[in-house]
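Objective 1b. Sequence-to-structure analysis of HEAT repeat-containing protein 6.
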Amino acid sequence: MFCDVTFKNMAASFDNSEIFSNLSSKIINLFLRRTEGNQDLISKTLDDLNSLNYRYPIITNATQVGYVVREICKFLKKNQGTLETTLLALQCLEACTTLSSENQKADSDLHKPLELCSEVFLSHLTENLTDSNDLITNKILQTCCLGLQNVILQYPEYLMKELGTVLGVIKTFMLLGIKNVDYIMPQKLMPSALSIPEMPSLTREKKGGKLTKQKKHRVSGTQKKGKINQSEHDTSSGGYIPATTCLDYNSDSGVSGVNSGNKIKTSDSDFSDSESGKAAKLQHVKTKVRRAALNLFFIVVKNTEKSTMFTYWSSFIPEDNMSGQHNLVTCFLRDPSARNRMSALNVLLLLLTTSKLYLAQAESSDKSTSFTPYSVVLGRMITELHRSLSLILHEISVPVLTQALKCYAALIQATPYHRMSSRLMTKVIRNIKPFLYHKDASVQVTALIALGCVLASEPVLPETIEAMLKLESALKNKVAKNDDSLLMDDIDSLSINDSFEYADFDEPEEAEESDSRCGTGIPWLLKRCLVNLGVEMEESESSKGAAPVKLESLQILSAMSTKYFENLILPHLSLIVKALDQALLDSYVDLKLHAGRTVDFIGQAMSKFLSNEDKLVEIPITQCVNFWKTLLNKSLVDLFQFEENPILRAVACDCLGSIGPHIFEQLPRDKQILCVTLLFSCTRDGENSVKGAAVRALAICVTYPSLREDTGFVLDTAEAIYRTLKDDHLSVREKASWSLGNLSGALVLSSTESKEAFEEISSEMILKLLKACICGTSDNDKVKMNCVRGIGNLLQLVTEEMLKNEPFPETVDKAFAVLVKCCTTGSNMKVRWNSCYALKNAMQNINLYKRCSVDGHFSNKDWQVPVFNALNELVVSFKNFKVRINAALALSAPKCREHYGNFYFSVWAALLKALENSGNIEDFNEYKHRDNLVEQICLSLGHLTTLLQMGDLSQLQSTLQLYEDNLKTHIGKVMERLVPEKSTQLSNAVYALNQLEKRDLDASGREILGQFKKIFELNI
């Protein structure tokens, strides 16, 4: 059947190509030999051309279509035909620009014809509109908007030439025919002169970055299958991540990105010829003009640089409700067509998600000044958008309401609430809250997404905590659950100038809430999520939510755990574990998956909370232990039995890795053994995701005190990591390398805290792991950045006895050579600064310096020469400040003067030069690290000063004189910023100088010592 359909399509495409070729030749001849009598023939031929199906590739001769376009353009420019003929000619041009497939770009030889088409389209859109109520004229406007959209999709570079003009056209026609909105002539829009922060260049070197504490979870197989291909304006990057991908609020809902050749049209004959029929026909066409303009707007925003598009915000987003009617807000509030309101909201959604960086500058200010900063203008725009979106939340159409809530979610993510007027967040929560009780599941889900964005908003505001902690009130009764109107009865219609007062936490609601405290005493959002998940409350309904609602409710619980664990999660763990237990035992696989992820998030938050010793005293740990005991009784363990679904097993491993040391130590012995046994068995799983998750979880467990002291467990974990580090799949090796870094860190702790346990770890195992790390540095950057961390830790464990064995000295030299190479080469900055930090760890091991000793005197041999040279060079001038910070830290690692050898003076010179260069910033993104760099350099210089000896003074005199003033200034600033606990190296430097002063110094030595004391003592 499929082959038959394909054959028919190919045959139709071939026939259409031949017909197009014949008609093209005919129309060219008619235009060249045009007479009075062949006007009807021209119209007939144009109509035949328009009737072809341009969805299939029927244009085989680019030269021929170029001729057709040029002749039609000449005909239109001379304006000799009737309006009907002009419409047919424009429709033919629009058809010629139609994409045959999505995301197709035109060849360069078609750029000129496309430009000719767009010039004609723009000329008809920008000319004086003599009769806005003429049906043909409005069809011409619609056709031109569709044609421009086609041109931009195929030839985006053209947009930059005419961006202001195209936006001016959009601003006019997206409002055409809306009641009480005056028509304005299209005019070129000019960008605002704004101070826009630079976007990081895509061609810059990779910086790596701090590993996030919350892992990015995998996507289930069922989700991957139907996942929308997300564009670069994905709102899930940072902040709240919706669980329901089918409701991804970056989809192009409401926008026809590609115009098919034979579009389904409402025929003119569908309307009667009466006056009312003609009026309806005209309004229908005007609606299509507005929709075409809005769809064109979406395509323009999508194909324009974010920074460029943001300069036109003031032309479309009002500062207040008195800013006039010609803006995007009027479109989604006043357009009578639900599809048009959807299109307008989709444009707003795209504008918001592509402008987060710039909207972060916004702030509110009540001060009246002659000059209004642009940040305040932005704040007014954001406030007005909050007001406008609260108005459209009274929408009756469910699809439009859903889209409005998606916009609200994007606005929440983009708004810096800590810089805005107080109580704005409270109003947001109050406006969204009723939709949790809406009878449509899609509305409930988008309301949950919006509230998830509230929970993810940073920084956490006291008013947000206050609003979230309120108990469920009778507010939900204001939503007509069983009402056909779906929403509040007292709202029939809205105008952009209608007065609107935000809902607020007023006294009547407080009274209702105080009554509700007699019930479960659960905060309203948590309670709603638990009810959705099937937890029965004393006085609430016991109905479960639809599957998407359940998934989003679990995602809300995950978001709560991140920033509101103490306030929202901890007091209600017994109820939350009921919900999670039920979800994990549910037959719906996606629900199990999201429940597992929620357990992981709550586990991480619990472990972090319990690591605070002050909090540990305040709360009973029993409820936390019971949380895990309940899950380990059956539901969580059952996930490991799902042979057909590896993602569930991987998530189960993640959950066990998030238990944390405080809880693990309190679990019964059988549960501890169960956890460890399950993880070890999964390290031999056939699925890569499971294998990687298991070895990662074991590497977390090995840091727990009881397991760290269990030599058997440590050795088994080391073997599992070593085995998976050789896996064929990068994702597994990446997890294994991270695990090796964790394991090596645990071994360092054992070597200092539990020497007996460490002594049972054989030198062969240390050597084996060290060689594995060295080998891993030739792998992918993601593996390399973890392996260098492991090398630094393992080099700390090398003892004097180990160095007497033949393989060790050579391996140590290789390890240092690898670290030097990794910190001085490559484009991944995380690899570089990890390598510097690894050198710092290694250089703390005094045993490694003994190999450089000849007859009791240290000399610059073996690894020291390349290491000090590399660090000196990096700290002075490397463009990435985090690399320089770690290089400066490494230069302060040697514990005594002898370990520096002759490099002591070059290190002094390098650090002083680095301090002077700290003000030279090539990349402005590095500015935020400048203070940390200065602090670390000063602390490193303080450390060098504590090691100062009499013989060093004369050799440092010239270097010190060159940088004395600069050093004194920076030491003073650092002392002002740092708390005493962090500035001990500077205090120790003063003490060392005072001790040195007691020595028998000559006049020159005392003079130099005086210079040192001036620098340090005046600032201490």
